[in-house]
Amino acid sequence: MILIFIATGAALPVFLFGTDHAVFRATTRWTNHMSSQKYGGSIAPRERINIHYVPRTNDQAAEVELPLNIVVVGDTKGALDETPIDERQAVSINKNNFRSVMAEVGIKTTVTVADKLSEKPDGEMSVTLDIKSLDDFSPDNIARQVPEMKKILELREALVALRGPMGNVPAFRAQLQALLDNEETREQLLRELDIIDQK
Question: Which Pfam families is this protein grouped with (predicted)?
Fold first, then answer.
């Protein structure tokens, strides 16, 4: 048995539905998320949907609360799936396997964004991102998946490293300054960092 309901506005509904052997009562309760009150014995917070099961067999009157399970149907991979719908398997997701499910699904998206790295005023670049965890949405991890931005990120990390203990060694600083003062070695260094085109 499947129940689908839509609630709008401040007045949230109460549903009664059942079979010959049981009666179900689905209620929605809304309280402040910051409330310090406990759940009052419920398996879900009061701001969630609570579904109670009242069996009619053997004159039992005990009320049993059922967990809320939601089925989500949609294009979550961001890629074409040739598998027929009736052959697709449902994937159970919970707080314990969320990360592993994201890694196994193979989420990938391709977007076109403005090219701010080139000198073209209206330039665009295509970016393909592989999403294996929520950490992949962080700015640094997104940059590492874009070759042009990855080079800049690595250069920034190299410059930050120069401010560490190695950058305070006089002999090292003198050698680095000598490399930068020499035009030939400076261009070679820039080519190694992929800042200028290889010749």
Answer: T6SS_VipA
